[in-house]
C-alpha cells in the first residue's frame, strides 16, 4: 500500500488520508494484509496507487459475486424450480433474455411482446444496454440455455466495466480520501447483487456526475446526471439536495447549468424513442405507477400483518406524501444546520428516503446507497452494521421465495421474511441517523475532522453561507477563503 504521506496531484499540500490510521475497524481489518500502512509502503512506488488498488479490489469482488451465481449459471436458472432461491443466486438477466424478446431478436420499445407485458418496462438507456448485450451475444450460437448463459456472461462483463468506473469515480471524488472507495469495493452486498439487474449502469453514470461536480463542472455534471436518469429514475432526485445547497450558498448560476445539462441529455436520449415508439417508451412510467405493493417494503409488512387491501393508486399517494415529508425534513436540516451539509450527505439521505418510502425494494437497490454511504459517512463500523442488515435481507428474500414456490414449504416463512424487511429498514435508518448526527455536529464528521469543508461539493466547497434559517453555530472553517457577500437570516438581508 502507498505511503500515508504521499500527496495527490490535485492537492499537493495535503497527504492522502489513510483509514487504517484513523478508523479502528479498518486498522484491525488491515492486519490480514500486514497491518496499517507504514513506511515500508513507500517501496510500492508510483505503480501502487489508491485508485488502482480500489479498481482491482472492485473487479476481484465482482468476480467473487459471479462465482456465487455459479449454481444458477450451471443449471438452476433453467429448471424452473426453487433452486435458484435456495442457492441465493437469482438474476433477472437470463430470464428477461427470453421474457423480453431478446432471444427472438425483438427490438425494445418498438416490437410488442406477447402476454401481459406489452413492452420492455425499463428506461431507454437501460434498454439500449440490454440490446447491445443481445447483439454481442449473437456470435454464440447454440441451444437456448447456452445463449441465456452467454447473455448473462456478456452482461456481467459490461457491468464489471461499470463497477470499475464506479469505484474509480468514488475514489477520486474526495481528493484526499481515495481509500474510502474500498467501502464500495469490499461491500458484501455489492458482490451479491451486482449482476441481479442492470443498476450498475446508472450507478457508474451517477458516480461520474458527482466526480465532475466535485471538480467544479456543473454543466458536465448535469449531462451525466441526465444520462443516469435515462437509465434509472433515482439519480434525478440528486437535484433536490443540490437545489438546497446552492440556495444556501447562493450558487444559482451553477445550479441552473446543472439543471440545463440534465434536461438536455435526458431529452436527447428519450425524445427519439418517445416520438418513434410512444407506447413502448411510456411503458416504464405506466408500469411504475400501476405496480402494486411488492417485496421488501414496509407496505408489504402492513398488508400481510393487517390483511388490508391497499390499491396501487392509494399506495402511490401515501408513498408520495411520506417522501414529500422526508424531503421537507431534509430541507429544514439543510437550511438550519450549523454548517452547510456536504453534498454526499444530503444525496445519501434523499435516496435513502426514497428507498424507505417506496412500495418495492428489490435486493439490488442497495447498490444505489453504497457509493453514497462511502462518501457520506466513511466509517467502517457503521457501514458494516448496515451491510450486515442488507446481507440478512438478501438471504431472507430468497429463502422466503423458496418457501412460497417449493411444494414442501422449505425456507423462510412469512413472519421470518417480515423480520428481514424490518432489519433492512432498521439498518438503513441507523446509517441515516449517523449522517444526520454528523450534519448537526460537524465536529464529529470524519471527513471534516482534518479541516476540509466539502470535498464533493465543487463550487460549494469553501463557499460562504448566504441564506441561513437561523444563525449558524459554527461558521465554515474556510470562510476566510470565500467571497464575502450578503447574508440572509430569517428573511432579513445583512450587507
Automatic annotation (TrEMBL):
User: GO CC annotation: what is one?
Assistant: plasma membrane
One Gene Ontology molecular-function label = hexosyltransferase activity
Q: Where is the composition biased (Polar residues)?
A: 1-11
What Pfam families does the entry give? GT87
Name the keywords, alphabetized: Cell membrane, Membrane, Transferase, Transmembrane, Transmembrane helix
Q: Which domain of life is it from?
A: Bacteria
Q: Where is this region: Disordered?
A: 1-21
Q: Which residues cross the membrane?
A: 47-67, 119-138, 150-171, 183-213, 219-245, 257-278, 314-337, 343-362, 383-401, 421-440
From the UniProt record, list the coiled-coil ranges: none
Q: Where does this polypeptide localize?
A: Cell membrane
| Bilayer topology | Multi-pass membrane protein
Q: Which family does it belong to?
A: Belongs to the glycosyltransferase 87 family.
Full protein name:
Membrane protein
Amino acid at each position: 500500500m502507498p505511503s500515508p504521506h504521499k500527496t495527490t496531484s490535485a492537492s499537493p499540500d495535503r497527504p492522502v488520508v489513510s483509514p487504517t490510521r484513523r478508523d479502528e475497524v479498518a486498522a484491525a481489518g488491515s492486519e490480514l494484509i500486514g497491518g496499517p500502512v507504514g513506511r515500508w509502503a513507500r517501496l510500492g512506488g508510483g505503480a501502487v496507487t489508491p485508485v488502482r488498488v480500489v479498481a482491482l479490489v472492485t473487479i476481484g469482488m465482482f468476480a467473487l459475486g459471479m462465482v456465487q451465481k455459479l449454481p444458477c449459471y450451471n443449471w438452476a436458472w433453467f429448471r424452473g424450480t426453487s433452486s435458484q432461491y435456495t442457492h441465493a443466486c437469482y438474476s433477472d438477466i437470463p430470464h428477461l433474455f427470453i421474457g423480453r424478446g431478446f432471444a427472438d431478436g425483438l427490438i425494445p420499445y418498438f416490437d410488442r411482446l406477447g402476454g401481459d407485458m406489452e413492452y420492455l418496462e425499463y428506461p431507454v438507456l437501460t434498454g439500449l444496454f440490454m440490446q447491445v448485450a443481445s447483439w454481442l451475444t449473437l456470435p454464440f450460437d447454440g441451444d437456448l440455455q447456452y445463449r441465456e448463459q452467454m447473455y448473462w456472461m456478456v452482461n456481467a462483463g459490461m457491468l464489471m466495466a461499470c463497477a470499475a468506473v464506479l469505484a474509480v469515480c468514488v475514489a477520486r471524488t474526495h481528493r484526499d480520501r481515495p481509500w474510502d472507495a474500498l467501502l464500495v469495493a469490499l461491500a458484501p452486498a455489492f458482490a451479491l447483487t451486482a449482476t441481479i439487474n442492470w443498476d450498475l449502469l446508472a450507478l457508474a453514470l451517477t458516480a461520474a456526475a458527482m466526480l465532475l461536480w466535485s471538480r467544479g463542472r456543473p454543466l458536465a455534471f448535469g449531462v451525466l446526471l441526465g444520462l443516469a436518469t435515462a437509465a434509472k429514475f433515482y439519480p434525478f432526485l440528486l437535484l433536490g439536495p443540490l437545489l438546497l445547497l446552492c440556495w444556501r450558498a447562493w450558487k444559482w448560476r451553477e445550479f441552473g447549468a446543472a439543471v440545463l445539462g440534465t434536461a438536455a441529455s435526458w431529452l436527447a436520449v428519450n425524445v427519439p424513442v418517445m416520438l418513434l415508439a410512444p407506447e413502448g417508451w411510456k411503458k416504464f412510467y405506466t408500469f411504475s405507477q400501476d405496480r402494486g405493493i411488492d417485496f421488501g417494503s414496509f407496505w408489504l409488512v402492513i398488508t400481510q400483518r393487517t390483511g388490508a387491501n391497499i390499491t396501487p393508486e392509494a399506495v402511490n399517494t401515501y408513498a408520495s406524501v411520506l417522501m414529500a415529508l422526508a424531503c421537507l425534513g431534509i430541507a429544514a436540516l439543510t437550511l438550519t444546520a450549523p454548517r452547510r451539509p456536504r453534498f454526499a450527505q444530503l444525496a445519501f439521505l434523499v435516496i435513502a428516503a426514497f428507498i424507505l418510502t417506496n412500495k418495492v425494494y428489490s435486493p439490488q437497490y442497495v447498490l444505489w446507497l453504497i457509493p453514497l454511504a462511502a462518501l457520506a459517512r466513511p466509517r467502517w463500523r457503521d457501514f458494516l452494521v448496515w451491510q450486515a442488515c442488507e446481507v440478512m435481507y438478501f438471504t431472507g428474500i430468497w429463502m422466503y421465495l423458496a418457501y412460497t414456490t417449493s411444494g414442501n414449504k422449505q425456507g423462510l416463512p412469512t413472519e421470518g421474511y417480515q423480520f428481514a424487511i424490518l432489519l433492512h429498514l432498521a439498518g438503513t435508518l441507523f446509517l441515516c441517523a449517523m449522517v444526520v448526527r454528523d450534519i448537526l455536529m460537524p465536529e464529529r464528521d470524519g471527513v471534516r475532522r482534518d479541516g476540509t469543508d466539502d470535498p464533493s461539493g465543487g463550487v460549494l466547497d469553501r463557499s460562504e453561507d448566504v441564506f441561513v434559517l437561523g444563525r449558524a453555530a459554527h461558521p465554515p472553517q474556510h470562510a476566510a477563503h470565500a467571497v464575502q457577500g450578503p447574508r440572509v437570516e430569517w428573511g432579513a438581508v445583512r450587507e
